[in-house]
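Recall the central idea of this unit: under ordinary conditions, the amino acid sequence of a chain determines the structure it adopts. In this exercise we apply that idea directly, starting from the sequence alone.
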Amino acid sequence: MKHAVDPDVVGGMSIFEKSCAFCGARFRVLAVRAAPGAHPEEYDCPECGMTYRTEAAGEPEVQLLSRRTDGRSDRYQQTMF
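Accordingly, the structure predicted from this sequence is:
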């Protein structure tokens, strides 16, 4: 199992799996890490829309592995507090 803090880097591609902290969905993130063009890029949980960030040369691709586990259907809303 791969974690966001320890991604595999194969040929400039970073591939890792993540569980959403808001809804519990599992998804895989594929990001191109071609230096020196890597910079912060955002990607969203495909189930609730919670935003995450990673270093990448372009927008990461996200693949849903398992649906949300929290029993809700609402979208994540970031608070200003």
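The chain has one domain: 8-66.
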